[in-house]
Amino acid sequence: MNITGHNSFSGCRFCNIQGVYSQKYKHVYFPPNGSYTNKDHSDWISNIDKVEAATTTREKEILLRKYGKYLLFY
After folding, report:
1. Mean pLDDT, residues 56-69 taken together
2. Which residue among 19, 37, 60, 74 is least enclosed by CB atoms within 10 Å?
C-alpha cells in the first residue's frame, strides 16, 4: 500500500488518528487521546470511492493528500 507517510496528518495506516501541525517546530504531532478507531476494509473502500468520484483534478489531489495514494491508481 502506498499511503501517506508517518509525518503526515493521517500517519497511521491502522487507525483514524489525525495529526496537528506545529508552526513553531514545523512538524506534525499526534496528541495523546485514547479514542481512536481502527480502520477496516469498508473505510478503505469508501476512501477509494471518494477519490474516484472526484470531478476535478484539484479535488482529487486534495483527497489523495488526505487519504494517501493507493497502488490502485498506478
Report:
1. 84
2. 74
